[in-house]
Amino acid sequence: MTDRVVRWGVVGPGRIARKVAADFPHVPEAALTAVASRSKERAQAFADEFGLSAVHDYRTILEDPDVDVLYLATPHPQHRAMALAAIRAGKHLLVEKAFTVTPEATREIAAAAAEHGVFVMEAMWTRFQPAVVKLRQLIAEGAIGEVRAVQADLGAQQNADPADRFFNPALGGGALFDLTVYPISFAQMVLGTPEAVHAHGVLAETGVDVEESVLLTYPEGRSATLFASLLCQSPGMARVVGTGGWIEVPPRFHHPVSLRVHRNGHDPEELSLWPLGVGYSHEIAEVTAGVRAGRVESTVMPLADTVAVQDIMAAVASQLGLQVQEGPADLEH
Fold it and tell me: Is-annotated flag, keyword DNA-binding (predicted)?
């Protein structure tokens, strides 16, 4: 692609899409121009709010030649069909986390992206926050020695109404795909793919998971201890522990604005690293730069990492007895 502005469309104009859309003014190389929804009224309301020129249903946005990239913000089980259809239509993609609800669907999308040569990335905004970018730099520089452990929690108490999306298995409800994905992805980012996954938790009457503790074990005794809950609020902190110290990521660790670096034998160091806008701008910029450069993948959030995280979540789901409902591969269903 030339250096022209990359044109974006939103599929699924819900709460998260509104937050992401508000950050587009911080990325001058990207322009949000279109929206698609199963509801014409919802799409029109979103278009009016953000000044978009094109309002579509799911099928017609794929046919719009003035849209280069689609941001998929539909419920998790619906990602598969839209992503596959978009890839076949030659659209680049930013797919909201969790990428899908099964590793099989994630691999299917990754294979299709490779076949068609389009840029596809999971919208794991955490990895692009300036504080997390600095965290990875400090670890790579050996600031805390050899990393031995990761600890992270994320609890967000939700209304226990069974009709709520969080408790609806058909909409990918439960803690795993909305909350636990964050500490799992954080641990995978720091320690890589684990040797084993151990999970303990509880299911709601609707069959979705509402709380879990997860232990990931790695070679040479390294580990990640993770907790997520829809039943209780928790601090939302993360800690990376090494032989030469540790780094704390203060609440909420999945979109932090600071770090506390504790080097053995030294006073703690506080680093303030604020995102641009709310923080979604950085993932928008990553996709936009990749598309303009003709790349098909992000080096910060590669599809191999997304697959690895989905494999871990599948192991958690299996151990909890969670019955996952993946959506169809065909957009018409």
Answer: no
Residue (of 221, 169, 161) closest to 195 by Cα position: 221
The two three-digit tokens of residue 148, written as one number: 């031995």
- Burial of 108 from C-beta contacts in 10 A (0-12 / 13-18 / 19+): middle
Q: Which residues are catalytic?
A: 97
| Residues 112, 283: Cα–Cα separation, whole Å | 22
For residue 12, what is the domain's CATH number? Answer: 3.40.50.720
Q: How far apart are CA 62 and CA 41, in angstroms?
A: 19
Do residues 262 and 150 share a domain? Answer: yes
Q: Pick from 98, 231, 252, 81: which is nearest to 167 by CA?
A: 231
| Cα 233 versus chain centre, distance | 20
pTM exceeding 0.85: yes
Residue 302 inside a domain? The answer is: no
Question: Please, are residues 162 and 207 in contact by the beta-carbon 8 Å criterion?
Answer: no
- In terms of domains, do 37 and 143 share one? no
pLDDT tens digits, one per residue of 220-273: 999 999 999 999 999 999 999 999 999 999 999 999 999 999 999 999 999 999
CA 218 to centroid of chain Cα atoms: 23
